[in-house]
Fold this sequence. Notes:
Chain A is of the alpha+beta class. Chain A has helices spanning 8-18, 28-38, 116-125, 127-153, 156-170, 184-191, 195-207, 224-232, and strands spanning 40-44, 49-51, 59-65, 68-73, 79-85, 102-105, 109-115, 177-179, 211-215, 218-221.
Amino acid sequence: MTIDTSKVSIKTSLASCFGRNFQELEGANSFLEELSKHAQEIHINENCYIFKEKDPSDYIYIPISGVIMLERSTSKGSRHVFAFLFTGNLLGLSEFSFYTFSARALSNGTIVKINKQLIQSIFERYPAIAKRFHEFTNHVLNYILDQLFIMGQKSAHQRLAHFLLDMSNRIGHGTNKFYLPMSRQDIADYLGMSLETASRGFSSLKKKGMISIQNNYRITILDEAALHRFADD
Amino acid sequence: MTIDTSKVSIKTSLASCFGRNFQELEGANSFLEELSKHAQEIHINENCYIFKEKDPSDYIYIPISGVIMLERSTSKGSRHVFAFLFTGNLLGLSEFSFYTFSARALSNGTIVKINKQLIQSIFERYPAIAKRFHEFTNHVLNYILDQLFIMGQKSAHQRLAHFLLDMSNRIGHGTNKFYLPMSRQDIADYLGMSLETASRGFSSLKKKGMISIQNNYRITILDEAALHRFADD
DNA sequence: CGAGCCCTTGATGCATTTCAACGAATGTGG
DNA sequence: CCACATTCGTTGAAATGCATCAAGGGCTCG
């Protein structure tokens, strides 16, 4: 039930949420201590929901390993994917009392589950940590603004190029070869296009020599500069 | 240079940023006092920029009257409009050191300009106010997520319907007749479509009997339920 | 009255969706 | 181990939504 905050994986995840020199913050140690007492480390299986839209939002989650997808369904059939989350992201920022989207695991993995009241009480006692948290929220906000910009201004294939560059940064940490943890349908629902258009996008970028596709999920960016130019037009 | 925090217009603007019972918060009075000493009330003219993309983000702005548009330009010609802001909104939340978009006045108006360091120091002394501020950020985040959803999932005319319902709430405060302060081009750039498509959208909604158009900027929603149904599909 | 601006409308072409068929990979049971 | 079903991705063809190009209408202001 409780977690081991001395684990490297957990420490690095927390550090990438709360910033590089997290350990030096006032209250960081008390925070870790309280986490080790009250937070839970839970394992999640592929395709299981961590929470669903309209569930009461009582917890905040920090992915330690595995990939998480945030989604919302429309009245009739279709689905929107808001984000893909990896280690170092954070989940459940909302201060509403209900989640406004669902969170589903794309792969088996581990997440740390923290009661919101615990977080709230930490924030009240250690403003430095609260500040970091809110800086994180701000980064999310800016990230979503960029996404909004891309959705409003770019063509389908350009959006796909942006997506691949983003994934290269976040999954491959800058390396050009990486494994996509999501299906074509997931990508399409994230970028607001049909599955077929997403697939054609992959083919088109491949034909242009910007990427190569080892198999459906394993991608290499061959010409990053050209991909950037194409994406930004 | 300084502002008069006893002015009703300023009080109501602050209240709608920081929440209903703002005055009862711990530190609210000190906050107001510091504002009256150090914040500035400035008048802005139609079409003037309050700040531009890449300007150092040293201030936070609270619109008292008038309408503000947030925009960003692409490398070549086109433009994205992120938001339209009214009284009770807040501008410059970013904790980056530079703005990532420009802010332009759509009409003559008044805004309160607050140094970020002042805000920061208030937050450090009065966590209750900081908390309110961050709740506000959270509302913005949720608002943008909804916008992202709409941009990704809805057709051009549906997006326009959403837009009109949103404006009805925010400008007309729920009344069905209101004055649009922005041009068709602004709307198009906000909703990610061409000026012509936006215009056709207006015509189409009018032909369907959902809205009526007194003149270019004065709109009446005739059948709100139908408009909702159409928007949400 | 005429100029200029913004909005509307029509015609055409392109981007994207939809429908449909096929191919590749994976797993299952005989 | 192979036939078969299933799932997921690709590709083609037709239909549709939207952008673009182009012309005209209405309003405001000099």
